[in-house]
Amino acid sequence: MSGKKTDNPHDTRMKELFHDKKAFMSLLKDLLKADWADDIDESSLKRSPNTYILPDFSDKEADVVYEGKLKSSGEKVIFYVLLENQSAVDYRMPYRLLLYIVEILRDYYNHADEKERKRKNFKFPAVIPLVFYTGRRKWTVPLTLRDMFAGQERFGDALIDFNYSLIDIKTPDDESLESIESKLLEMMIRLERSQDFDEVMDTIGNYKTKIMELNDEEKRVLNAAFKIFSQIYGDVGGFDLNKILYAESREVDGMLVDFKANTMKRDRIIRAEGKVEGAKQERVKWQSVVADKDTQIANKDTQIADKDTQIADKDTQIADKDALIAELLKKLGEK
User: Fold this and answer.
1) Residues 242-282 pLDDT 10s
2) Quick one: which of 189, 194, 233, 314 could link to 200 by a disulfide (CB 3.0–4.6 Å)?
3) What's the longest Cα–Cα distance across the chain?
């Protein structure tokens, strides 16, 4: 599968985050807490340009693929991270992940040396599926494929099965977030948890010292995310993370006041435009109703006119018959 461009703001933020190898390793160690995470050779990790999202889901989700090796054996491993941010959880998740895993294995097989893949000791790389969930609702989807099969209790291990790992950003408490090695990952999760731009600004203010300690690339990623948040919550293109970081507290307060004022003005304009548009739609609706009534009346008038014509035709026929009868009577009288 080839790479794809994503225009979804959430996907853009998360893809930027997981371009950072340190953030990805911190995800495995600090959030997933996998016992095998320490066996991953971080120097071997590289981001794959491939995507395995199916066409049916291309506008709803995005993925991140990392390839690496184990320190202990040098064997290859592929991490498949599905970025999920839907308003409603998708109960087809295990099935969708199965399709993506099969595509990864198919791609690996097709690109393997033809002689190598016929050997007895040919092995596929381990594929580790993960779901990084940033949605608001509780995740209630089964974590195993087998739970999607009817009769799975009866057939047990005879059914195909796998588990996927879920990283739900709502789960870690504040202490757990503090312990995350990648401060970029920590800050991104805190920003993703924000309900509005006030909370985004509060997060920046509360963790200003930590953000200042990020390296230039990490700050670039966080700034890109911050600009997206500012546009989502207020369509404010002028907000820049560096300006806020190096501004005095009073200046930051002024920025926030300006933002709120702009937001309130925008909301008033939207409401006014909505009322005008609503009035237009209502007028069009009643114009349509009146036009329909006029059409119905015109149709009734046409029906009445047709009836009058029919009656006039009947009267003419009767008159013709009366005239014929009178003519016949006259002739009979002459005889």
Assistant:
1) 776 666 555 655 666 666 666 666 666 666 666 656 656 76
2) 194
3) 136
SS3 call for 168: strand
d(CA 274, CA 299): 37
CA pair distance 24, 303, nearest whole angstrom: 77
Q: Residue 80 and residue 63: Cα distance in Å, rounded?
A: 7
Helix (H, G, I), strand (E, B) or coil at 293: helix
Residue 153 and residue 147: Cα distance in Å, rounded? 9
Percentage helix, strand, coil for the chain under 3-state DSSP, each rounded to 5 = 60, 10, 30
Report the distance separating Cα 169 and Cα 133, nearest Å: 6
Size of the chain, expressed as the number of residues it contains: 335
Give 205's contacts (C-beta < 8 A, 6+ positions apart). 252
CA pair distance 247, 10, nearest whole angstrom: 27
Strand locations in 3-125, DSSP E? Answer: 46-48, 62-69, 76-84
Q: Which long-range contacts (CB under 8 A, 24 or more apart) does 260-264 make?
A: 260/198, 262/234, 262/236, 263/197, 263/233, 263/234
List, for residues 28-45, the tens digit of each pLDDT value: 999 999 999 999 999 999
pLDDT at 5: 47
CA–CA separation, 290 vs 280, rounded Å? Answer: 15
pLDDT computed for residue 261 by the predictor: 64
In one-letter notation, the amino acid at residue 198 is D
CB atoms within 10 A of CB 319: 10
Rounded CA-CA distance 180/203 in Å is: 16
What does pTM read for this prediction?
Answer: 0.69
Phi and psi, residue 182, nearest 5°: -80, 110
DSSP lists the bridge partners of residue 76 as 69
